[in-house]
Automatic annotation (TrEMBL):
Designated name of the protein: Calcineurin-like phosphoesterase domain-containing protein
Domain Calcineurin-like phosphoesterase, residue spans: 1-193
Organism in which the protein naturally occurs: Devosia riboflavina
An example molecular function term from Gene Ontology annotations: phosphatase activity
Lineage of producing organism: Bacteria, Pseudomonadati, Pseudomonadota, Alphaproteobacteria, Hyphomicrobiales
Pfam families xrefs: Metallophos_2
Length: 240
């Protein structure tokens, strides 16, 4: 089995288009969407249209919940912006997505951790320019009770793959639509496949027209997002 894994598009349709074009040449068996699909100031409606048109396994992220219910704790300006751009059909699709899913017999997918879509898993969130990989004990704790050989998560926007001591693979594909801190503005996704030696991961960065995407964010009233999208060096404080 060969899967394309997409997370954290955040309404960045130009970045998503670049990733989908790249995936088209990868001969995958399925596409998995890990949440935070539309919340962002670029083109949430276009991103939703493209994602809904895929024959993909899809779950929701925290920003998907907040886009559906902008009065909930944690919801912000980009969630309200996205809700205002989506059609009733798109909001219904978003509201109906499950928190977790399984793909076949060997793959479990979630957004943050299996218990909470707001909790980071493989990396703690940014402290200035630094992120910290938790201990194996902490990482394994969130995987307790999940027997799947492969566990996929998103949320942190940081691409990482690791193995627990028991052999289980956990992978975060990074973010398609919003890069921070690390100076890699390209759109990120992953290919996960089972070969003769077991499951393996390729973390992929795809260049796209970040200048055009940044100008759309700025034109829609989010200059900090424009700076982050354009260069990938800004921190999360730029997204307020």
């Amino acid at each position: 089995m060969r899967l394309a894994v997409i997370s954290d598009v955040h309404g960045n349709a130009p970045a998503l288009d670049a990733v989908l074009e790249h995936i088209a040449g990868e001969h995958v068996d399925a596409i998995v969407l890990l949440g935070d699909h539309v919340s962002g100031p670029i083109d949430p409606k276009g991103a939703a249209e493209r994602l809904m048109g895929l024959d993909a396994v899809a779950i929701r992220g925290n920003h998907d919940r907040w886009t559906v219910d902008t009065g909930s704790r944690g919801a912000g300006a980009v969630d309200r912006f996205a809700q205002g751009r989506l059609s009733a059909e798109q909001l219904t699709w978003l509201a109906g997505l499950p928190a977790t899913a399984e793909v076949g017999d060997e793959i479990f997918v979630c957004h943050g951790t299996p218990e909470n879509d707001e909790t980071p898993w493989l990396d703690n969130f940014y402290d200035g320019r630094t992120t910290t990989l938790p201990s194996e004990e902490e990482v394994a704790g969130h995987a307790r009770g999940i027997d799947s050989a492969v566990i996929l998560c998103g949320h942190t926007h940081i691409a990482r793959t690791l193995r627990l001591s028991d052999g289980r693979l956990i992978a975060n594909p990074g973010s398609v639509g919003m890069q921070l801190v690390r100076g890699s503005p390209d759109a990120h996704y992953a290919i996960v496949e089972k070969g003769r030696r077991g499951w393996q991961t390729a973390l992929i960065a795809v260049p796209y027209d970040t200048e055009a995407a940044a100008k759309l964010a700025e034109a829609n009233g989010f200059p900090g997002w424009g700076e982050s999208i354009r260069h990938g060096w800004a921190g999360p404080e730029s997204l307020g």
